[in-house]
Amino acid sequence: MEKIISLTPRQIVAELDKYIIGQADAKRNVAIALRNRIRRLMVKTEIQKDIVPNNILMIGPTGVGKTEIARRLAKVANAPFTKVEASKFTEVGYVGRDVESMVRDLVEQAVALVRDQKNEEVKVKAADSVEEIILDILIPPVKSAGFTRSAPALSSAEVTLDEPTSDAELNERTRERFREKLRNGDLDDRKIEINIKASSSMGVGMIGNGMMDEAGMAGLQDMISNMMPKKTKKRKLSISEARKLLLEEEMSKLVDFEEVKEEAIKLAENSGIIFIDEIDKVASKSSKNGGGPDVSREGVQRDLLPIVEGSAVNTKYGVVNTDHVLFIAAGAFHMSKPSDLIPELQGRFPIRVELQSLTQEDFSRILREPKNALTKQYQALFESEEVYLEFTDEAIEEIARLAFLINQEVENIGARRLHTVMSHLLNDFLFDVPDTILANSKIMVTQEMVQDRLSTLVKNRDLSQYIL
After folding, report:
1. Percentage of the chain surpassing pLDDT 90?
2. Phi, psi of 159 (to 5 degrees)
3. Which residues in 407-436 are b (16+ Cβ under 10 Å) and which e?
4. Closest CA to 56 of 26, 79, 16, 17
5. Contact (Cβ atoms closer than 8 angstroms) between residue 400 and residue 360
6. For the chain, how long is the longest CA-to-CA vector?
7. Deepest in the core among 2, 160, 397, 455, taking most CB within 10 A?
8. How many Å apart are CA 190 and CA 151, to the nearest integer?
9. Burial class (CB in 10 A: 0-12, 13-18, 19+), 152
């Protein structure tokens, strides 16, 4: 939480600017929404529980950054985040995903975040325990009958000792020397046999006369798993592989999972972000008067209402209240309008942000400025095989111009068009590395090369095979 409190809305926008070009209005609104959640937690009076988040509806064509803004916001906040597609849900009574599953997905993300945090806290202590387990396998402790060793046998080249005064001293000095070898990685390839927990494959299906809901089934499975005796199995692995498995087991022993669940539920309730994409796909067109598929669409909207407004949802980790979960919905609204959503749902998203279509200049900036720019991604791929890729300024401008032109003439898929263009431009080089383009080679992408390689894309008006 300390990290979030230290970020002002301006700083949040600055973080988003590192990855997303343009869309200043959308960034500003999500930054305010995120900071308001922290402000609510700092309120000390009873009114705190009445301060609800202002959910956001983002409207704009595909590929302009709606999803990326929400995803990056969650990373900036280090908050649980889940993305769902409204079109995948069906109303109660139909076969398909129910809307409550989005809350269960959010809690799973929260549990993973808290577990990772707790694991990090005990990692050093767990690593020490793993080291002792491996040393016990390599150098078993001294027994009363004298110093004994078991497989794997230790060669005289591995252990060189001065004359010991006792079996215990010999054992201890041998362990210390092997401890040093372990820490230096000298024994990583040595095979040892370890005992690890065997995963249970038992599942739960029909209960009584019907199917249990997802949360109930998962909870019952966990209860049965906890009641079953813990089985172990032996595996022969290299020390480096064994260390990873043993570390996971030791960390799980040191972490109180009940505490993890409690913290995860609080984190999901107070910091969780649910991004509902394609909300326009469940909008009922105003020209229709019921009947057909629009009935189901309206049913999904009505099922969404209590979740977005605030309700208690059963999950396998406990009951989660959605009163203070931040919901961000997004849609292109090509075939419908926000006003086609039922009025009650419209009211649950009071902040509306319209994202702008990308310009040619935006494409150019997208190729240059973000930390994860597509040009930088391709450079990293080539550098992994010691081939160095460079772009001239003119080449980047030409790529941006062609991507913008194709978006205008065919379907506008926003920044995703750059993936199409870049793959068409560089796939031949990627195919030839490292067979004919050898290590330490340099590839310079020029304006002429871009025009030559992408000319067929521009001339061919039927580009459906290239649309992602």
Report:
1. 57
2. -120, 115
3. beebebbbbebbbbbbeebbeebeeebeee
4. 26
5. yes
6. 96
7. 397
8. 11
9. middle
Contact 190, 152 (CB under 8 A): yes
> How many CA within 13 A on the CB side of residue 230?
5
Among 94, 62, 29, 58, smallest CA distance to 298 is for 94
The structure tokens 């930390």 sit at: 371
Instruction: State which H helix or E strand residue 444 sits in.
Output: strand 442-445
Tokens of 51: 């301060």
3-state DSSP call for residue 92?
coil
How far is the C-alpha of 132 from the C-alpha of 148, rounded, in Å?
17
pTM: 0.78
pLDDT tops 60 at residue 163: no
Specify the DSSP element, H or E, that contains 193.
strand 191-197
Q: What is the pLDDT of residues 382-395, one digit of tens each?
A: 999 999 999 999 99
Q: Tell me the backbone φ, ψ of residue 49, rounded to 5 degrees.
A: -70, -15
Give the Cα separation of 420 and 424 in Å (integer). Answer: 6
> What does DSSP say about strands 273-277 and 81-85: parallel, antiparallel, or unpaired?
parallel
In the block, which residue shows the tokens 């009940």?
A: 258
Cβ neighbours for 120, distance < 8 A, ≥ 6 positions apart: none
The full set of domains in the chain, from first to last, is 2-111+265-354 (3.40.50.300), 126-260 (no CATH), 360-456 (1.10.8.60)
Could you tell me the two tokens for 131? 């080291």
Cis peptide before 338 (omega within 30 of 0): no
What are 346's two structure tokens? 């419209």
Mind listing the pLDDT tens digit for each residue in 167-176? 778 888 888 8
Residue that has been written with the tokens 């908050």 in this structure: 79
Q: Are 13 and 28 in contact (CB under 8 A)?
A: yes
**465 torsion bin: left (phi>0), alpha (psi -120 to 50), beta (else):** alpha
Query: Is residue 248 within 8 Å of residue 53, measured between CB atoms?
Result: no
